[in-house]
Write a structure and sequence with these properties.
Layout: H1 9-16, H2 26-30, H3 35-59, H4 68-77, H5 79-111, H6 116-119, H7 121-139, H8 143-174, H9 185-188, H10 198-202, H11 221-248, H12 261-270, H13 278-299, H14 304-312, H15 330-351, H16 355-386, H17 399-420, H18 433-457, E1 469-471, E2 489-491
Antiparallel strand pairs: 1-2
Helix pairs in contact: 1-11, 3-11, 3-16, 3-17, 4-5, 4-16, 5-7, 5-13, 5-14, 5-15, 5-16, 5-18, 7-13, 7-15, 8-12, 8-13, 12-13, 15-16, 16-17, 16-18
């Protein structure tokens, strides 16, 4: 890690802010109505901040700067659990791709007036694998190519439509048009049964630990990092609340499609006075599809860098991480593609290709990642009580009691969200409950066991020396990519093996 201390408070904010512009989540948030504001505040304060603070402290422990969650959990709970944590962090993306492409298909179905693309299971499945594999082959050309797509997609396909949606929603409200939800205290505070949506809202904050290593580059981390996190959570709550409410306020709950809800919102906001601007809705739908496609393309290589790290250390066969001339780990990318194809089949055909498929996919994405966060918080508690003398440049103030309290709150919310995920959301019909629960339970059980089985049967591989990975300097971070999908490390220019 570079020894330069050049990252300002604003600079750190800039490399983390893209965490909250995830337009494909807005329809799912909207299913909770005005309660979405409560859940975003609840998760922001009681989950996001604990993750941000605990990961920052672990990232600054001397010798723990490289490897992220694999190192943090591995150094505290043991290598087996470190591998499981990084595995969950990668594996959840293979499910998340399906959710994102469902959203793309929903938008394209409107653009081309081809509804089967969004609701016919077979056509939807084919759509997912065609889009994903095309983007996968594009990514083999290296990150410089995908970075251009990501930047254009983020600016014109995400930021521009989101800003326009907010402006249109304000005009819609000020003109006295009908609003589909109630803004009252009763509709703000959820009932116990409403907490089945908790995991969905945690998704809005996942990935912040990816920015934690850059605290080592901050000029004054003890002062600036907590301030940056508070600013980020305020912005995150604001943007996600506005996005979710913009959809919930104009699209009736019984008509809301999770994969095309944003397009439905644009349709109602723009066409309220006639159909003359249908073309504009289609243009915006296409831009949004392009924007999320850019996000998918940027995520294909990024998360595999974590698995490359464990291969480089010999935890899994190093041959799995061999790269092409563009430094893309082609074997890991291929395995990832096979898993995405399998998930697309399970979720699309198992859920019927409708809201069940989308909601199961997004819930499964979250709970897999949350299992990794459970290990993360347990690892932090080990750091507090058993490794408290290790040198670090950032530390949560207040002593062991405050540290334990913060970690336990984050751990409790993580476990609570996993448990509540198995309570079918109210947005599903009663006859859809069983499909949702069965797919979620079986998939999570198998996924949780898988890394431990792999670790058990994978002998340490020390025969092949790969290029060393180093955490990316903040100046090289792609700010237009969500932290969960970023490449977090780069290949050392010194090739230890003398070849790829």
């Amino acid at each position: 890690m570079a020894g330069k201390k050049e990252l300002t408070l604003f600079g750190f904010f800039a490399i983390t802010a893209s965490l909250f512009i995830t337009v494909y989540e807005y329809p799912t948030f909207a299913t909770s109505g005005f309660k979405l504001a409560f859940f975003l505040i609840f998760c922001g304060i009681l989950w996001f901040l604990p993750v941000a603070l605990c990961s920052a402290e672990m990232a600054t422990v001397k010798g723990w700067q490289e490897g992220g969650i694999f190192t943090w959990v591995g150094k505290t709970l043991g290598e087996r659990y470190g591998f499981a944590a990084i595995f969950f962090q990668w594996f959840q993306v293979t499910v998340g791709f399906v959710t994102m492409i469902y959203f793309i298909l929903g938008a394209l179905a409107y653009v081309f007036d081809f509804k089967a693309l969004d609701n016919d299971p077979l056509i939807k499945f084919l759509g997912v694998i065609v889009i994903f594999w095309i983007l996968t082959f594009v990514s083999l050309g290296g990150t410089n190519r995908t970075a251009k797509i990501t930047k254009l997609g983020f600016i014109f396909g995400i930021t521009l439509p989101v800003i326009l949606m907010f402006i249109l929603a304000i005009f819609y409200f000020t003109k006295g048009n009908p609003i589909e939800i109630k803004f009252t205290m009763d509709s703000f505070v959820p009932k116990i049964t409403d907490f089945s949506a908790l995991a969905i809202f945690i998704l809005a904050y996942m990935g912040v630990e990816a920015s934690a290593p850059h605290i080592n580059e901050m000029k004054n981390p003890k002062r600036d990092y907590p301030i940056a996190m508070v600013l980020i959570v305020i912005v995150g709550i604001g943007l996600s609340t506005l996005g979710g409410l913009s959809v919930a306020s104009v699209v009736p709950a019984h008509e809301l499609s999770l994969s095309s809800g944003v397009v439905q919102a644009f349709e109602r906001l723009i066409l309220q006075n006639g159909d003359g601007l249908t073309w504009l809705v289609k243009v915006l739908a296409f831009l949004v599809a392009f924007g999320v496609m850019g996000q998918v393309s940027s995520w294909i290589v990024g998360p595999t860098s974590g698995m490359y790290t464990v291969a480089q250390k010999g935890v899994i066969p190093k041959k799995l991480a061999k790269t092409n001339k563009n430094d893309v780990p082609v074997i890991l990318i291929g395995i990832q593609g096979i898993m995405v194809t399998a998930w697309a089949a399970i979720l699309t055909f198992g859920g019927g290709g409708n809201n069940v498929s989308f909601l199961t996919a997004i819930s499964l994405t979250v709970v897999i990642y949350l299992v990794g966060y459970v290990l993360f918080f347990l690892g932090y508690l080990v750091l507090v009580f058993k490794k408290k003398n290790l040198e670090r440049s950032f530390e949560i103030g207040g002593g062991p009691f405050v540290k334990t309290l913060i970690a336990c709150i984050g751990l409790f919310i993580s476990v609570l969200a996993i448990a509540y995920s198995f309570v079918p959301p109210s947005s599903l019909k009663p006859d859809e409950y069983e499909s949702y629960k069965h797919i979620l339970a079986i998939s999570l059980a198998l996924t949780t066991i898988l890394p431990f089985v792999i670790y058990m049967f994978t002998a340490p591989d020390n025969q092949l020396h790969l290029k060393e990975l180093k955490t990316l300097d903040s100046s090289k971070i792609d700010k237009f990519t969500h932290p969960m999908g970023r490449i977090r490390a780069e290949f050392s220019k010194k090739d230890q093996s003398g070849g790829d």
